[in-house]
């Protein structure tokens, strides 16, 4: 981009005050929008369709006027205008690799300076540094994950062992023989390796040299990470990103929410109003990475999170979001209101006599009905009438829609792995 000289080094951006950062990101966004609309016809078409002149975007607040780019629309763009859907700003010959993600979406691997500096900043912030030997178990073929993380680690000065997925036994041997200090992969695969190592007779604490594992990519890994830290003495970090935009946010040592990566603009959008929300509300994570080669403006991740307002004890000034709280698709619109698992969970957590539950939305006539199916741990000593009353009060308060009835069901009726809210309406 033309104003490269004016971009401050990442070390400076990391310590900016909130006001400075806002100003910096607003400026970067303005340049990015102008550049993308000039070079990426699909982006220009999105602005035209919304009736917005690119020059009318002077900051993050102005993004609200542009409809969110959804994954299925992205796929449609790729189908309609191969190879890159009119979204990439450089010719094929300027790309280093092209990844084939599901869709199919052809993700470009390129040299955009701000893209790589944010990737590197993230792995350094989580804790990898020169001298580390890191086993990377993300998939190396087709999709971006493996090679993108590989290149990021190399740029951060780390020695990489490109293991990819599978070969659990070999992974154990390599971790032991090469005295790897770091691991990067999914939580479940990391646990497979740990279990295999124990099966092979290794003592993970003594025989492994691991000090840090960046494990994540899955919901609900918290208890496992705690186990890894306490039982095996290996620090863990989490990083949040998507194949489409790369890294978005990361854990710091405070482990209380994730900092937004530098050079990434995140909005959290209310699924009720479609507007940007402030702290205390939950909404969809919508991302605009400052990436001149592949500028996806307002990409909807479908993930739900909220802002954390307090300064972080680690000293970084980058804003933080909560851990991911589910997917947008998990919310069910009922009587004009969205109800989401995150609303039900805290309300029902207090009822220790309940083994499992599931909210079901039906439409027997012209009104949506909300039923809570409940499986008790034991029927003994449970006053169902009283419990029903308490549940109706708690759920109605939590979801702001009247719970019509509670239905006690036998063991097995609600499957072990189930959605907390299901939509059984027939129109
Ligand atoms: Zn922090």
Q: Care to describe what's here?
A:
With 427 residues, the chain is α/β, with parallel strands linked by helices. The protein has two domains: 4-327, ANL, N-terminal domain (Rossmann fold, 3-Layer(aba) Sandwich); 332-423, GMP Synthetase, Chain A, domain 3. The protein is 32% helix and 23% strand. It has twelve helices and 20 strands. It has a seven-stranded antiparallel β-sheet, with helices on one face. α12 links the parallel β18 (369-376) and β19. The longest helix is centred in the first third of the chain and has 22 residues, at 18-39. The mean pLDDT is 91. Bound molecules: zinc ion. Zinc ion binds next to loops.
Q: What's the SSE blueprint?
A:
Blueprint: H1 10-14, H2 18-39, H3 41-50, H4 71-80, E1 97-101, E2 105-109, H5 113-126, E3 133-136, H6 145-155, E4 159-162, H7 168-177, E5 182-186, H8 187-199, H9 204-207, E6 212-216, H10 222-232, E7 235-237, E8 239-242, E9 246-251, E10 258-260, E11 264-269, E12 282-289, E13 299-308, E14 320-321, E15 332-334, E16 337-339, H11 341-349, E17 354-362, E18 369-376, H12 384-399, E19 405-408, E20 421-423
Parallel strand pairs: 3-4, 3-5, 5-6, 6-7, 17-20, 18-19
Antiparallel strand pairs: 1-2, 8-9, 9-10, 10-14, 11-12, 12-13, 13-14, 15-16, 17-18
Helix pairs in contact: 2-3, 5-6, 7-8, 11-12
What value does the average pLDDT take?
91
What is the CATH architecture assignment of the largest domain?
3-Layer(aba) Sandwich
* Ligands and ions found: zinc ion
CATH superfamily of the largest domain: ANL, N-terminal domain
CATH topology of the largest domain: Rossmann fold
Low-confidence runs (pLDDT<50, min 5 residues)? Answer: none
Helix content: 25-40%
Q: State Rg.
A: 24 Å
Spatial sequence of strands, sheet with the most strands: 8-9-10-14-13-12-11
Shape: globular
Please, how many domains?
2
What's the total count of β strands? 20
Number of helices: 12
Query: Can you identify the CATH class of the largest domain?
Result: Alpha Beta
**Termini, distance in Å?**
52 Å
Task: Name the beta content range.
Answer: 15-25%
- Largest beta-sheet details: 7 strands, antiparallel
SS-derived structural category: alpha/beta
């Amino acid at each position: 981009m033309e104003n490269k000289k004016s971009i401050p080094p990442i070390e400076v951006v990391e310590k900016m005050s909130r006001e400075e950062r806002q100003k910096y990101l607003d400026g970067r966004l303005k340049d990015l929008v102008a550049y993308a609309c000039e070079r990426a016809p699909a982006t220009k078409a999105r602005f035209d369709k919304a009736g917005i002149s690119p020059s009318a975007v002077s900051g993050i607040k102005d993004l609200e006027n542009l409809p969110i780019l959804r994954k299925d629309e992205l796929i449609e763009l790729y189908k309609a205008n191969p190879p890159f859907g009119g979204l990439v700003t450089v010719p094929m010959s300027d790309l280093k690799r092209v990844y084939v993600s599901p869709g199919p979406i052809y993700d470009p691997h390129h040299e955009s300076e701000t893209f790589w500096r944010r990737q590197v900043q993230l792995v350094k912030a989580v804790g990898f540094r020169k001298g580390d030997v890191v086993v990377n178990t993300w998939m190396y073929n087709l999709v971006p994950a493996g090679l993108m993380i590989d290149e990021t680690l190399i740029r951060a000065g780390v020695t990489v062992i490109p293991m990819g997925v599978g070969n659990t036994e070999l992974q154990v041997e390599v971790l032991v023989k090469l005295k790897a200090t770091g691991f990067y992969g999914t939580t479940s695969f990391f646990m497979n390796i740990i279990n295999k190592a124990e099966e092979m007779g290794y003592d993970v604490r003594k025989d492994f040299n691991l000090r840090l594992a960046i494990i994540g990519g899955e919901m609900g890994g918290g208890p496992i990470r705690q186990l890894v830290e306490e039982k095996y003495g290996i620090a863990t970090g989490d990083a949040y990103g998507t194949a489409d935009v790369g890294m978005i946010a990361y854990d710091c040592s405070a482990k209380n929410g994730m900092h937004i990566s530098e050079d990434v603009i995140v909005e959290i959008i209310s699924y009720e109003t479609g507007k940007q929300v402030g702290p205390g509300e939950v909404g969809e994570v919508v991302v605009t990475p400052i990436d001149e080669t592949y500028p996806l403006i307002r990409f909807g991740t479908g993930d739900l999170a909220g802002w954390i307002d307090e300064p972080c004890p680690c000293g970084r000034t980058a804003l933080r979001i909560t851990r991911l709280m589910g997917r947008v698709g998990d919310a069910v619109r009922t009587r004009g209101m969205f109800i989401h698992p995150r609303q039900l969970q805290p309300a029902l957590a207090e009822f220790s006599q309940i083994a499992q539950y599931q909210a079901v939305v039906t439409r027997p006539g012209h009104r949506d009905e909300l039923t809570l199916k409940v499986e008790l741990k034991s029927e003994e000593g449970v006053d169902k009438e009283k419990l029903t009353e308490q549940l109706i009060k708690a759920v109605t308060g939590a979801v702001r829609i009247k719970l019509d009835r509670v239905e006690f069901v036998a063991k097995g009726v609600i499957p072990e792995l189930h959605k907390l809210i299901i939509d059984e309406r027939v129109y």
